[in-house]
Each structure stands twice: as C-alpha cells, then as structure tokens.
Amino acid sequence: MKLKTLLMGAAATLAMAPAAMAERGSDGALNIIMWQAPSTMNPYLSGGTKELVAASMVLEPLAGMTPEAEMFPRLAAEIPTLENGGIAEDLKSVTWKLKEGLKWSDGTSVTSADVVFSGQYCMDPEGGCSQLAKFEGVEAIEAVDDLTIKITFAEPMPDPYSAFVGANSPILQKAQFEACLGVNAPTCTDQNFNPIGTGPFRVTQFLTNDVITFEANPEYRDAAKPAFATATIKGGGDAAAAARSVLETGEFDYAWNTQLAPDVIAGMEAMGRGKVSAAFGSLVERIHVNLTDPSSSYPEGERSTAANPHPFLSDPAVRKALSMAIDRQLLTEIGYGDAGQPTCNYVPAPEAWASPNTECLTQDIAGANALLDEAGWTMGGSGVREKDGVPLKMVFQTSVNAVRQDFQALIKQWWSEIGIETELKTVDASVFFGSDPGSPDTLQKFYADVEMYADNFEGGNPAPYLAKWTCDKAPSPENQWQGENISRYCDEAYDAMMVELSKTVDPAERAKIGQKLNEMLTKESNAIIPLVYRGTASAHSNSLGGVDINAWDSELWNVADWTRVEQ
C-alpha cells in the first residue's frame, strides 16, 4: 500500500471528524453500554471483541484502520513502506518510528522498549496470548533507538502490517507489565484491569463484568481532546435493553453491538432519539464444530483436548450433514435483514480472498439424510441416529442473545429432521466471551459439541486470521485455554499451506492460497460452518457527534473525536 494513499485516507478521515473542542473535557460525561460486559482491559488475554473495544479507550497500537480499511499511523510517526525505507527490499523486516513526545497516562515517556516488551509478552509460549497469530512469522523485535523498532521475519513478509496494527495488538507499558510475563500474565489483576495507556482515556475503576469508569487522559497527545471529561462503560442486560437505553430512553449515548431483528430496530428508531449505524467488514456469524470430546467423563484438563477425538463429530459426513441441513437465507432474513448476507465463507472479504463456493446456500435435508445413511448412521426408533452404540446427541451453546436464540431454535429443528438430537445451552455473554481460565463456559474451553459466535479481523490482510487454525494454536491447559483454534482443527496440509502463504509475495497468488485455506476450514472439513456475513451494528444518540462506525478496527477507534452536539 503506497504511503501517499495511506496518508490521504488518514487525512480524509480526520477531515470528516468534528472540529476539536477548545478545552479538553468540556462536554462532560460520555455513557456507553456494552451488554456483553468486558472481563478484562487486556486484549492479549481475551479472544472477545468486547474486551478489544473497551481496551481501545486506553491502549493503542502503532497503527490503526479507518472505516475504509485504510491504515493510518496512531503511535507511529508514519506507516513504513518500501518507498520511505521502512520496509526492507528483501521484505524480511519492517522498521517503525514512534511519534516524538508520546507519554503514558502516568506521565512517563513511551519508548521502543515498550514495543519490544509487548511483543515478548504475547509471544511468550507460556503466556496464553489470545492474539498470537498477529505475530506469525516474527523472528525478532528489537529497539534500534528510543523511538525506532525493527521487526524481523523468518521469511519475506509481503504484508508486514500485522503485529501492533489494529486494536488487537496494542502497546503495553513495560514498567507496568514486566512482572506479568508467561504464566504470570492472568494473575496480574491490577495491570489487566487498570492498564496505563496512551489513549484518550484512563481507567479510574474496573468492576469485572459490570462497569468501567474512565477520565480524560491528562497526557493525551492532543491537548484539546477528548471532548468528554469522563466516560462510563456499563455492562449487562441484553442487546434489546441496550438499544432501548439509547434509542428510546436516552439514558446512554452509545450502545455497542445491537444485534437485533430489523423490525425491532425500526420500531426503536421511530422514537427519533438516535439511530443504528452498520458497516460491513469481515464479521461472520458461524458455528464451530468441536473436533475433540467435551464429555465430563474426562478429568479436568482432558476435556476438549487433542488427546481425545470427538466420538462422532470426527466423522466428516456428520459435519457435512450439519451444514447441509441449514437454511442460511431464512436465518439472514429473520436475524439481520439488509444488514446480513448468507455465506459459505469464513473469510468473506477482501473479495479476492473469499471463496466463490456457494454450495451451502441451498438447504438440502434429503441430501443430508442420504449422506448419513451412506456413512452408516442409522435412524433409531426415537428418531435419533446412531452407529456402533454412539447416538447423535449434541450440546449446542452460544451467548444469550435474542437473534442467536432464534437461530438455535431453527437449527435444532432442522437437525432433528436428519436424526440429530440437540440440547440448547445459553451462556451469559460476559462469561462466554470472557477470559477466565477457571470458567467451564468460555468459548475457548468449548465444553459443548458445537457453538455459535462471530468475530472479525482488522484491515485488508486475512493471513493472521487464517493463521489461527494451525495445529499449535488449540486452546489447552498448557496455554491457559487462551488458544485461538477454537475447533481444535489440525491438518498438516493446512499448516503447510500457511507456510506457503507466508512466503508468497504476489497479491493474486496470496489471494488464491487464501481462498484455498478458506475452503479447507469450511467446504472441505466443515470444522467451521459459516451462516451469515453480518454488518457491525451499534446504536448512537443524535446528541453524539463524530461517530464513524468501523468494522475494520475497534468501534471506538475515534472516540477521542466524539463530541456533544446540539439537537
């Protein structure tokens, strides 16, 4: 990506932002509701979007992404390119330079040592970093001087904008976190709840799964920002209550992730207090199939681990039948309307990386039954198929959410029509998307047979997102259940193709490999069953200015530019 293009994109974004207020904090209090309450302020210890969003109020990466998927410098002075010498000609290193004069919220200077430490923190093999794929291929991170960082790759890296780009991999303060490396990472409660940052706000109180209060960061690099003196993120409730609190009662200014049926949203917007904005990025609602056995008959530490394959979901025919039985068009209509598209892709964008496969878009109950018959799964008198004494009985879990519960009910019915008995389980979103390694109900622990959720990646490079599915990234006790490979998918051919992708420079060839990897996860293995390509949607008050919803980074990416406006 050319530096000129990047800077033009950044300039355009800044031009759209409201004019800076004359005095920091002059607009009073900002109230945000996230019905999926954050459980930590450290995105390195959570795979949940809610933690990423909350943490972005405080922690920042070297570069971010605009709503147009254009990269812009955040803590970096500029985006490294071949033209400006930031990217080596052999593509084996990238050199970043920090802005001069950056301060942490405690008044100390930000230096290259903090960036080097942040890489060490995530790449520590005992740390259980949830964002490890962001550092795929990184061989070394070194401080050239106080403001210069060089990242060296094991192989030529055609797209070096992964580590420290986007809200998933921010810079941590070395002085605060240096005692939190490896196995100590999750035990550093004060650091994880109250990180010292460079963002527009700093934490004043963190109550896990409840409320976070902030004040304007007195050391923020723009003396006129943020416009709000304080901010609050309130957690709990559900998507409908959160949307009502903005669109009907006006209690809150912004409601994150208003995942509701289109007719429900329309009724709330009719009150005239605010609106829901949506943007398409890479968010796909999907089902993950557990390829390991979650049975409670195993001792703690052995459930849902590679040592114990799943008794029937290890059969490709069963996984394929699960996908064939689903009517994705109907799910999209009832759940998202125009804010969704039925999909067979795990990676739906950029377009060049999306597989042209559309086979799954046609529901085929008869075909699914025939496939299971052929695979030897016979229908019993109770309407449940079995083979060698193993019945097709599953637990299907997801977070508490009206749309997801509608999806569960429909999918359960379709699966019953092919001889699969499904028990539905719902988990409070704050727990399901949480990071507590002691909880049995996190999506990473996966103590169920299948589970449904959505997440996304930043920017236009899906390679790190696809890298999450290599064999070494499965959650386990060894990485404190923070691994990214939720389905426990393991295919040597997939791992080899990821290596090939890391060595491929030509954009068209990279996209072809990306399509193949996409299909290996979905069409070929059905370890991931895509359902709906979703828009990112949130509600905001008419009195809140500067909101520019972003599906490629944190939704609060430009919270420093938000203002109170007259209605």
TrEMBL record:
Q: Which UniProt keywords apply?
A: Signal, Transport
Q: Where is this region: Disordered?
A: 292-312
Known Gene3D superfamilies for this protein? Answer: Dipeptide-binding Protein, Domain 3, Periplasmic binding protein-like II
- The leader peptide range reads 1-22
Domain of life according to the entry: Bacteria
Where located? Periplasm
Q: Per the annotation, which location comes first and is thus the protein's main one?
A: periplasm
Keyword tRNA-binding among record annotations = no
Family indicated by similarity: Belongs to the bacterial solute-binding protein 5 family.
The name of this protein is: Peptide ABC transporter substrate-binding protein
